[in-house]
Amino acid sequence: MSEPGTGLFTDRYELTMVAAALADGTADRACVFELFARRLPDGRRYGVVAGTGRLLEALTRFRFSPADLAALESVVDPATLDWLRDYRFTGDVDGYPEGELYFPGSPVLTVTGTFADAVVLETLALSIYNHDCAIASAAARMVTAAAGRPMIEMGSRRTHEEAAVAAARAAYLAGFATTSNLAAGQRYGIPTAGTAAHAFILLHDDEQAAFHSQVAALGTDTTLLVDTYDIRKGIANAVEAAGPGLGAVRIDSGDLGELARQARDQLDELGATNTRIVLSGDLDEYAIASLRAEPVDSYGVGTSLVTGSGAPTAGMVYKLVEVDGRPVSKRSSAKESRGGRKSALRRFKPTGTAVEEVVFGAVGGRGEDTPLGPHDRLLPVPMVRGGELMDGTGSLADARERLRTALVSVPWEGLKLSRGEPAIPTVFPNA
Amino acid sequence: MSEPGTGLFTDRYELTMVAAALADGTADRACVFELFARRLPDGRRYGVVAGTGRLLEALTRFRFSPADLAALESVVDPATLDWLRDYRFTGDVDGYPEGELYFPGSPVLTVTGTFADAVVLETLALSIYNHDCAIASAAARMVTAAAGRPMIEMGSRRTHEEAAVAAARAAYLAGFATTSNLAAGQRYGIPTAGTAAHAFILLHDDEQAAFHSQVAALGTDTTLLVDTYDIRKGIANAVEAAGPGLGAVRIDSGDLGELARQARDQLDELGATNTRIVLSGDLDEYAIASLRAEPVDSYGVGTSLVTGSGAPTAGMVYKLVEVDGRPVSKRSSAKESRGGRKSALRRFKPTGTAVEEVVFGAVGGRGEDTPLGPHDRLLPVPMVRGGELMDGTGSLADARERLRTALVSVPWEGLKLSRGEPAIPTVFPNA
């Protein structure tokens, strides 16, 4: 119980709403909140559900410590402080399993509980999903663009230090092979990787000395950074230092395609035919795709990964859709929501290709008993019941495999990098 | 000492470089690393230094616990593990004080120490600066656009839960009045604010019931959200519930300028002449500027703030510039750096308007003894000496005031929102 609480990752208005609802007797009304994206980021074909494992873990730590409560004395009244002191989420959570695809309107997460129990989770749930889904969705496109070549996630330095750990997790979920982030290695068991920085070369009297030192410390299978001075000389020095069994060279600047071809030729001439070529330096999914014909063995991706490649937040919202069994929704503008609890299924062709996302009203139930066609798959799964985590939710390895499988089912246009419509349409037969 | 360590917010290659440098005897070479931005985000006129206080605090926790070291057994050799076990930063840090402006090439932070001591801080320093500077730089433009109207930071839900706390801090530094984020309130003493969500209205049997409940719980000075159903009816219900002394109404959707005018007229007709109008809903600096002529009293800003309004990372790098008194720099490509320790001064007109950023070589010293012209101001200040924090660094209130003053000195073109060149040029007389 020494783990820090997550209760204060909350917007003030959630607690003042609880205060008012406790006072007027509506705090205990049975509510259903739904987390979903109204649309995908501009031109994207699919979204990737990510953050589920992190949210479920954070939910177990959603508590208010004595220090937290002291800080809240100026925010809410004593009755609300008492309520917060005893807070434990006792409701239910259903949702798309982590690694599943989502589309506009997909009910990615559904939280069932009293108003007060469920409304306080709004900010935490949205923070985790909006960040992690944005990163995983961008990462999946990069993995597709890399067409099987392994990718190293190395964007930690371009984002908040804790967001970096979550980004490494989302990238691994999406198929990245490794991360440079040591905290992600420790926390989630993600394989870590790394090469060397230009600083290491510059520290030494010359490039040869730096390469000899690195090989002595890390073995010949290491990756030597060859673009500090002259790349051609750098490659010659690298093979001289490590022998033709050198693991890899990394090039971090310049015209990467041209440099990769030259490096391959030179390495082959030197007998280093198995030495791999690692490219890095402002790569995004488009740059990666443009390198497909080049002799590249792996990519290091940083900035574009951790910033969601132009879409740093997923645009998820958390909306109250049902109160005491009655559908509710905002009605004043274009930002409307469909009221009522919903569930969803994905419809496939007999060949296994996805055809459409069916989001349907599930009033009075959770959709588990929905009659499914032979090629339909129900999407939400139960994750929390009465505040207790269900077994088998939240595994990162499962999520990684689930996404790999799901992407195989996407119609081929849906895997294009170019801007377009969602890969499959969302239909709302009765929602 | 129960605070969690920050040692693992580090890329793997930093530790393997330390391992190689410990083995070859270069780990103790006297090094200078410089943190700077090669350029500002596309079209931006200035950057805002932010994150200094967070970095200095994180530096005091840069340690490797037994659990951390266990996780690193597969990464580095036993000698390096021993070195990490005893790690304490014992070097010096100089830098631009938090809240100062920066321009391309400004030496925002300079870390002096042995190679091993200083290289391991690379990722942590960059993560904090790249995130916090990006947010503060965007926030400052929004504050300028708001022209004195108070701004509420409410973007927590659009970014990682810990990044949200740092974003609230950066926004406050940049002049935002309040944040919705309760953790930021507790951790940094930032004033918190909030209104109510549409969920609170929908929870109740009707809008009147919701408004009466909120006023009963929070008083007539509260802010009522009036756009759940019909805004005109919402405003009438709001004044009916709270009386003409109602604090504020919030409008979160629709044509905000038109709605603000209508709302002001209606409120005035109802005698609620002092009731404020709060606008929110996908506002960025351009939208805020476009509302300058409208009867708006304050703005709530979310997504665009926490994503840096198109520039979610500041593009800072951390480069080795000096080894044992010798300038060093990468030389293979356009991504060159200027070698050697540098300092900087800002030159002003007698009127107090900034003219240029002068980044000069400070080999053999730190620039403190640089002869200054009558309108020059030396920018870096000492922050850490021999691993010990200097007094008076890292205050958020000071940073807020510093930025306010600095923006007054920017030439008027530099405060324009439109894309253009940096507000003042950076010159490198000898660097």
From TrEMBL, chains A, B:
GO terms for molecular function: glycosyltransferase activity; nicotinate phosphoribosyltransferase activity. This is Nicotinate phosphoribosyltransferase. It is an enzyme of class 6 (ligase). InterPro entries: Aldolase_TIM (IPR013785), NAPRTase_N (IPR040727), Nic_PRibTrfase-Fam (IPR007229), Nic_PRibTrfase_pncB (IPR006405), Nicotinate_pribotase-like_C (IPR036068), Quinolinate_PRibosylTrfase_C (IPR002638). Pathway: Cofactor biosynthesis; NAD(+) biosynthesis; nicotinate D-ribonucleotide from nicotinate: step 1/1. Residues 8-128 form the Nicotinate phosphoribosyltransferase N-terminal domain. Catalyzes the first step in the biosynthesis of NAD from nicotinic acid, the ATP-dependent synthesis of beta-nicotinate D-ribonucleotide from nicotinate and 5-phospho-D-ribose 1-phosphate. Residues 135-303 form the Quinolinate phosphoribosyl transferase C-terminal domain. It comes from Pseudonocardia nematodicida. Keywords: Glycosyltransferase, Ligase, Phosphoprotein, Pyridine nucleotide biosynthesis, Transferase. It catalyses: 5-phospho-alpha-D-ribose 1-diphosphate + nicotinate + ATP + H2O = nicotinate beta-D-ribonucleotide + ADP + phosphate + diphosphate. The keyword Transferase applies. It comes from the Bacteria. Belongs to the NAPRTase family. The keyword Transferase applies. Its EC number is 6.3.4.21. Transiently phosphorylated on a His residue during the reaction cycle. Phosphorylation strongly increases the affinity for substrates and increases the rate of nicotinate D-ribonucleotide production. Dephosphorylation regenerates the low-affinity form of the enzyme, leading to product release.
